[in-house]
Amino acid sequence: MHSSKSKLLFSKSDFDKVRLSKGNDKEKLSLIAEMIRFNSLATIAYAQSGHIGASFSAIEIFTALYHKIMNVYPDEPTRPDRDIFILSKGHAAAGIYSTLASVGFFPEEKLLTFRKFKGLQGHVDISTPGIDGNTGSLGMGLSKGKGYAWAQRANKFNSSTYVMVGDGELLEGQNWEAIQSAGHMKMDNLYLIIDRNFVQTDREVSKIIDISPIDEKLRVFGWEVRSIDGNNIEEILKAFSELRAIKNKPKAIIANTIKGKGVSFMEHPYSLAHDKVYKWHGAIKDKELYKKAYDKLIERIWRLVNNAEIKMEMPVFYFPEGNVSQFAGKSLKFMFSELLVEYGSKNRNVVVLDGDLSEDCGLAKFEQMFPDRFIEVGIAEQNMVSMAGGLALAGKLPIVNTYTAFLTSRSNEQIFNNATENTKVIYIGHLAGILPAKPGKSHQGIRDISLLRSIPNLILCAPGNPEELKQMMKFMIEKTDKSCYMRLEHAAPRINVEFKKDYKLEFGKGVTIADGKDAAIITYGPLMLAESMFAYEELKRNGISAKIINLPWINNINNEWLLKEVEGIPHIFCVENHSSIGGQSEEIRKIAQNKEHYIHTIGIEGFGQSGDDINILDYYSLNYKSISEEIIDKIVSIA
Fold this sequence. Notes:
This protein is of the alpha/beta class. It has three domains: about 10-305, 3-Layer(aba) Sandwich (Rossmann fold), CATH 3.40.50.970; about 335-490, Rossmann fold; about 510-639, Rossmann fold (3-Layer(aba) Sandwich), CATH 3.40.50. It has 24 helices and 16 strands. It has helices at about 10-20, 25-45, 50-55, 60-70, 95-100, 140-155, 175-185, 205-210, 215-220, 235-245, 270-275, 285-305, 335-345, 365-370, 380-395, 405-410, 410-420, 450, 465-480, 525-540, 560-565, 585-590, 615-620, 625-639, and strands at about 85, 160-165, 190-195, 225-230, 250-255, 350-355, 375, 395-405, 425-430, 460, 485-490, 510-515, 520-525, 545-550, 570-580, 600-605. The strands form three sheets. It has a six-stranded parallel sheet, with helices on both faces. A five-stranded parallel sheet has the order 1-2-3-5-4, sandwiched between helices. A five-stranded mixed sheet has the order 12-14-13-15-16, sandwiched between helices. Helix 7 links the parallel strand 2 and strand 3. The protein is globular and about 80 Å long.
């Protein structure tokens, strides 16, 4: 962490000065909003990770809620009769964390732990004082808020629940289940705030699915609705004042906002028009652009502070220099992007479906080349998977893409249903595994194998390097008539492990990368394959000869091949970039568990965590040193 005594953030005492200054609510809250916006920028810049656009659009709403409208108690953050706020668009974490610090839920210095190990989590998390519910996977917040609102009424508390969702998030069906039932239940202590900033991850909401008219839809389901300028303090306060008087109806505010509000070159529509895609949804590691944004915000804040005759020291600009990464390998995403285009050219039945992550999942080239066979479904994973089922029944070859954490859990029943029809769908689980770690538990794909292993006729696989990815794509598209799920790791490994030049992918079989007799390490995917190879060298220095086996098939393992590969080797270590429960190791255990072999699992225990990648590998004992130490301990203890 930055050790200088220089002021990097506005402190609670600075916010107190504004609250106690002369001026009306609009003037004070407008200044407070700009200071929170600055702290949000500094938080993201320090972490070199986070969501700028989505935080900035919501700042005025956060400010009005916590500095004027809601009854909250920073000294008693879990007081039962408090007002509740659920940030369903949990990626705007930097904005809400900065707001919580401004009213004293925790010291502002804690903002500098954002997305660091054991610091503020990458998506909002109840481990942070003032956060009332975990979110990150979209669409859950309103239902959770309904639960709070129901309990408030049951307990006869004179309090309310406020839930903010994004406009793109309204594509998730769970929101409409909650909207319908809240209207039916006449929950007049429930407020829905829709941050309508008109942009999803990197493009306009209307270009994906036009969700208009939101107000008419809400009214049909029994809601009282106001549509306002969500970056205008006066309009925000007026809307809440009017809605407070409404009885026997839930209340909704459609807050029309500007994504990236407050920094001109980050704002929509300028940024989208200038850069072709909206590039400020997430952080950009560009020191000069952050400095430019800092200057714009500080100039405006300085002017407002002077006008209010407040004495206040301005924070200094600080941008940490990036550490040299220990991961020198290359992400599989880039090869996958090229292969999609290649097979799109070969096979006109290939149809690619996306869940609002075209750039992130490497689909943009296919979309550009074959727009008539690219379907942008938006933030609606269940809808996407069932649509793929219909495409498959109609004779197309659908390739479904989104993050592993969302695809395999949220759409599990739909994947199962498709499998019962004996058609062929290819599912690509992007961001598979524990890395990248900064987004935290909601985005880490470490349960997918356990969720899918029980589905009949679904082949689960995981390529270990670019060459294996090439051959695996060929297998899935051209050589099997079964549905396949491929977990695609995006994180760069320590190194890319090369196989022998004549390597041929064989269904159910793996390949030995290094030979040994004391132990066998069986793994899959580039990250753990690289760590296992480094562990091999560590073990060798400690007098242990380890055999390293890359096994890309998760649930279709050739029994005869496996038993032959581990013959005479007493210890088998299954190294998993996955939960220790339900992974490939359980398939191996079914085949090889006998008197000749001890089977050990090295995997992830508990929930995921935010942090720098190297820290997270250390924490879960998945770095090569920890793997080698675990192997030595087990061999010695059982000898």
